[in-house]
Design goal:
single chain, alpha+beta, 3-stranded mixed beta sheet, 3 strands, 15% strand, globular
């Protein structure tokens, strides 16, 4: 059974480059490679916001008074291993996504999926800030997921 995904879009997404069906399809492509085997279905909320909305969320939830590109709020619990779980919420600033795409030199879609994959990995406990080794592990998993999304997966 493919994961169940709940995706919420804000009005500022209308007319953007985001395609809800494609986002869901790509998540259903990568989640089986990330999630523990006991999970049979997954609920995941994705909130797309502006920089000002992201600043408010970051201030309220993390006491940091500035915008950021992506925030993850995990709910996933490995124990008890419930087969159907709400794994958390990912918040992505579309403004920062677009700005970073220009700075990095790729398109908005590439940057959006980089942020989305990064957020999903955080929901499952990956963390690049805990140690250099953890950063390497998370980066490798990000690269694997992005390769699947962009059709560069070698099947390993």
């Amino acid at each position: 059974m493919p994961p169940f995904l709940s995706i919420r879009w804000n009005e500022n997404v209308e007319g953007s480059f985001l395609d809800e069906n494609l986002v869901k399809k790509n998540l259903e492509l990568i989640l089986p490679r990330i999630k523990p085997k006991f999970l049979k279905s997954i609920e995941l909320d994705i909130l797309i916001v502006s920089d000002s909305e992201m600043t408010n969320i970051n201030r309220e939830r993390r006491n940091i008074d500035r915008t950021t590109d992506v925030l993850s709020f995990p709910l996933f619990q490995e124990f008890p291993p419930l087969p159907h779980q709400m794994i958390g919420e990912i918040v992505i600033s579309l403004d920062t996504c677009r700005r970073q795409a220009i700075e990095i030199g790729h398109n908005d879609v590439d940057e959006f999926y980089r942020l989305l994959v990064h957020g999903v990995l955080h929901l499952f406990g990956y963390d690049h800030e805990t140690s250099p080794d953890d950063e390497i592990v998370m980066k490798k998993k990000e690269d694997e997921c992005l390769a699947m999304i962009f059709g560069e997966d070698d099947g390993t």
